[in-house]
């Protein structure tokens, strides 16, 4: 039986998910709560191999359907190997991207059919939807610029219009799933962003002690 709590962080590239995930991890550990952190695509040996295909610029244009299925494949492995066992053990699970990235990037960005990607991913997650999802909202120009000199991966190299559709997609998802998704404005100091996330997450985290 599932008894942990599952939080995902989402948003356009450069929104600061990785920073916020590290802060959540530190706060949960300080509260004495058992926590597992992971990320997508990847998080398992199989998933990391799939991530290598998805993000390597040498593959250029991967057709959206292939992309969607590869992300879903990585996700299915992560759920069975890492997320479900941790939730069953009563842990807090923090994941950097999950199902909503496939909806924002492959549906709103890539133009695939919403219901197809949703159904494929419902199968991939095997009933394991997040309890809470924080969407870190940022203009793609700002997010991509935050990446600075770091080499852009295959997804980041997509045109600005793609990333704008992704950002709008996340906001539409928040309207579609208002119980699960919360939008947090991310173009401000990391401390402020974290305070808003923690205000909402803390009671659920404390309940796992
Ligand atoms: P990202 O979190 O940006 O990795 P990093 O911070 O290490 O660069 O994720 C990699 C990219 O994959 C990102 O551009 C979003 C994209 N992505 C999808 O298109 N669909 C998905 O389902 C997932 C999980 C990620």
Gap from first CA to last CA: 17 Å
What is the strand tally? 5
Describe the main β-sheet briefly.
5 strands, parallel
- As an assembly, this protein is single chain
Residues in β-strands, percent: 5-15%
Characterise this structure.
This protein is of the alpha/beta class and 209 residues long. The chain has one domain (5-206): Rossmann fold, CATH 3.40.50.300. Helix content is 55%, strand content 13%. It is built from eight helices and five strands; from the N terminus they run βαβααβααβααβα. A five-stranded parallel β-sheet has the order 2-3-1-4-5, with helices on both faces. It binds thymidine-5'-diphosphate. Thymidine-5'-diphosphate binds next to helix 4.
Compact summary:
With 209 residues, the protein is of the alpha/beta class. The chain has helices at 17-30, 45-55, 64-88, 99-109, 114-125, 140-146, 160-176, 190-206, and strands at 5-10, 35-39, 92-96, 132-137, 181-185. The protein has a single domain (5-206), classed as P-loop containing nucleotide triphosphate hydrolases (Rossmann fold).
Compile the SSE list and pairings.
Layout: E1 5-10, H1 17-30, E2 35-39, H2 45-55, H3 64-88, E3 92-96, H4 99-109, H5 114-125, E4 132-137, H6 140-146, H7 160-176, E5 181-185, H8 190-206
Parallel strand pairs: 1-3, 1-4, 2-3, 4-5
The structure holds thymidine-5'-diphosphate (TYD).
Thymidine-5'-diphosphate (TYD) binds at residues 13, 18, 40-41, 55, 71, 96-97, 101-102, 105-106, 153, 155-156.
